[in-house]
Amino acid sequence: MKNLSRHRSTLALALLIGLVLGCKSTTSSSSTSAPKNDSPKTTNTSANASTAPAPDIAGKYNVVGTAQEGGQYKGTMEVITRSDVYQFRWKTDSPYDGIGIQNGNIIAVAFANGADGKGCGVVDYDIASNGSLNGKWGYWGTNDAGTESATRTSGSGLTGEYDATGKNPDGKQYKAHLTIEPAGNLYRFVWSNNTDGVGIKRGDNIAVGIGGKRCGFVTYQVQSDGSLDGIWGGGGSDKTGTETATKQ
Fold it and tell me: What is the DSSP string of 110-170?
C-alpha cells in the first residue's frame, strides 16, 4: 500500500463506538459508551453465515494493488494473530501497521503509516434482511474485540438513523445513536459519542474504518486458494483502491 497520501493519490482491522491493537498491548477498554478513538467481508456474504470454521489468515503475503487515484504498487504483508484480533504489517514504498477483525470470510482492517496505528479502529457489520447491523469491532492497542448491533429507526437501504447497543472488550455495555449517509463510493458513519468513520460496502457486509484522515481501511474477502481480495480507502478521499494478497 502506498502512503496514505499515496493511498490517496497513487494505501495512504468503528465502533464504533468505544474500540484499540497495538503491536499489541493486552489492556482492555474501560469505556462504557460506544467505541471511541480514545478508548482503550465482492460480496459472497453467504460465506459469512456458514457454520464452517473461519479460515486461518495468519502468515506472510505478497501484495499487489491499485491506488485510489490510479497507478499500481506491490510489496509484502504479514498478518499476526493477537487473541481476538489480527495485527497487519505492510512493507511497500512505506511501512504500515493496522488492526484486523475477522467475520467469517471477511476481514476488516484499519491501518496507519508507520509502525504505530494508535487511534485507528475498525468495525465489520453483517447487514440483515430487515436492515439491522450486527458487528464486531476493535482498536489498535488492545488484543480484545467488542461487539455492536444497530437497529434502523428511519431511512432505507443502508442510509438512515439507527439505535445501537454494544459491548466493550471488558464486558461493559453501551448505547449510542448512529447515523449513516452516502459519501461517494463509501458511507459515512457518525455515532453520538463523537466517533465517526467511513465504510466500504460489499454485498451484505460493510467494513468501517475509524480514526480520521490518518487512518486507512480495507475490507478483504478470503478466497478459496487462501488469497485475500481487498478494497481499501481512507486518507480523506471518497475513492477506493484494490489489493490482492497471496500467501508466500
Answer: EEEESS--TT-EEEEEEE-TTS-EEEEEEETT-S--EEEEEEEEEEETTEEEEEEEEE-TT
Please give the Cα distance from 105 to 57 (Å, whole number): 10
| Grid coordinates of 248 | 508466500
Cα–Cα distance, 243 to 84 (Å, whole number):
24
- State the pLDDT at residue 109: 97
Question: Is 121 within the bounds of a domain?
Answer: yes
Q: Does residue 241 form part of some domain?
A: yes
Contact 139, 121 (CB under 8 A): yes
Contact (CB, 8 A) for 208 and 122: yes
The number of distinct structural domains making up the chain is 1
Following CA atoms 120, 136, 204, 223 in sequence, which dihedral angle do they give, to the nearest 10 degrees? 80
pLDDT in tens, 191-208: 998 899 999 999 999 999
Give me the chain's average pLDDT, please. 83
Closest CA to 223 of 88, 107, 95: 107
- pLDDT at residue 9 above 50? no
